[in-house]
Amino acid sequence: MAGEGGLTAEGEAILGAVRFPRAPLLVALGGGADSAVCAWAAVQSGCRVRAATVNHGLPASPALIAASRAVAAHLGIPHRLLAPTAGGTSEAALRASRYTALEAEGDAAEVIVTGHTQDDQAETVLGNLLRGAGAGGLAGIPERRGRWCRPLLALSREQVREAADALGLPYVDDPGNEDLGKRRNVLRHAVLPWLEERFGPGVRPALARAAALLGADDAELERRAGAVPVRPHAGVVRLPAAALTTLPPAVAGRVVRRALRLLLDPYPGHGADVAAVLVAAAGGPGAARPLEGGHRARREGPWVVLGAAADASLPTPVALPVPGEVDFGPWRLEAGRPGPLPAPLPVGRRWGLLDPAAAEPGLVVRAALSGDRVGMGAGHKPVAEALREAGVAAAERRGWPVVASGGTIAWVPGARVAAWAAPRGPAAVCLKLREAG
Q1: Strands (E), 316-384
Q2: Could you give the CA distance from residue 290 to residue 271 in angstroms, rounded to a whole number?
Q3: Where are the beta strands (DSSP E) in 252-330?
Q4: Which tens digits make up the pLDDT trace of 390-403?
Q5: Phi and psi for 123 in degrees, rounded to 5?
Q6: Beta-ladder partners of 149
Q7: Which tens digit of pLDDT belongs to each residue from 353-362?
Q8: Can you tell me whether residue 74 is helix, strand or coil?
Q9: Are 51 and 79 in contact (CB under 8 A)?
C-alpha cells in the first residue's frame, strides 16, 4: 500500500536504508531486480543519474538489455549500452570486463553505483573463505571504494525484490543465476540454504557482520601498508627492502600485493609470489626469485625490484677487479688501483672516480635495466634519463654498461657517478670506459 507521497512501504524501507554520495551517479543496470531498485533509489536521492549496461553477448543478454532499457525509460534516465572490454565467459572474466567498461564510460566526477545486496555479500565472503582468503577477501564487497558505491549492501535480496515488485519496475530474472555449473550459484542455491536449515536464518546477516568487522581490520592494515613507498617506473616496481624485512608479515605482505598489482595489473599475484618477494628482500644484493608471468624479484642495494626476467640477449654480468679490466659486450671497462685523486682530474664523461670504500664490496659490470636509477644525493634519477641527458643515443641505452657495488649502481659510464659513491677524501678508484678491441 502506498504511504505519504505515493511511496509503498517497501519503497520507504529502501530509502530509509540507503545512502548515496552527493555526486553524479552512473548506475550499472543489469536487467534484474537489484539494479532496478538501485536505479530507482538513485533517482529518489535527487542526484543526476544515468545508467549503462554491458552487453556480454550471452544467450540471456537480449532480454536483460531490453529490461535495462525498460527500467531506464520507466525512471526517465539516460541509458547507454556498452561493449565488453575483453573476452571470456567465466564469472571472473565477465566481472572484470564489466567493471572496466563501466569505468571507461563514467567521467571523473561520476560515482559508479551497483545493486549488490546483503546476499551477494554473504556469497562473496563464504566463497572467499573456501578459497583460503585473508582479511581482505573475507571483508567481502566494500560499500565504497574509489569511484564505486554499493548502497544496498544492508538489504536482503528478498527485500529488494519485494520493493521492485511493489514499485512496478520492469525487471527480468537472469537464467544464468540458476546455472549450478557456476561456483556462486552453488553457494546461493545449495550451500547457504543448507546452512540456514541447520543453523537458522541468521547465516547471511552473520556473514555480512563478519565482513564488516574484518573490513575495519583490513582498512587499518592497508593504512599501514599504504605508508610504504612503492615506486613504479618504466615497467618495473621498486620496494624498500628494509620495510619488507622489518614490518609485521601481515603488513609487509600487503605492500608486496600493492606492488604486484602494479606489475601484473590488475592481479595481486599468488601467495607464492608474495613469499618470493619477501625472500628476495631478505636475501641481500643479488638475491632473485621467479614470479608469475615471467617476472622476477631481485634485490638491488636497498631495493627489491620487480620486473621482467633478465634479457638473455644482454651480456652476462661480470666482476670488475680493482685494479683490472673486463670486456662487456662492445665495451672495455678499466679500474685503477686506489690512489691519490689525479691532478688534473680526467676530462670527459667516460671517466669516473669512486671512493675506495664504495668499491670495497666488489664491483660488478652489468647491463642497464628498465627502471634502474642512480643516486643523486637527495634523490634518484632514472639511468635512462641520465644517459639521455649525457647525449647517449636511444639505440645504445638498452644494454649500456653500469658499474654496481654491493648491488647498487655506483657509476653510469658516460653520465654520472652516484652521489653515495663519489670520493670523500684525497683518494679514489679511477674508472674508464672505452671501446673493446
Answers
A1: 318-320, 324-328, 331-335, 339-340, 351-354, 363-367, 373-375, 380-382
A2: 13
A3: 288-290, 295-300, 303-308, 318-320, 324-328
A4: 777 665 776 789 99
A5: -65, -40
A6: 113, 144
A7: 999 999 998 9
A8: helix
A9: yes
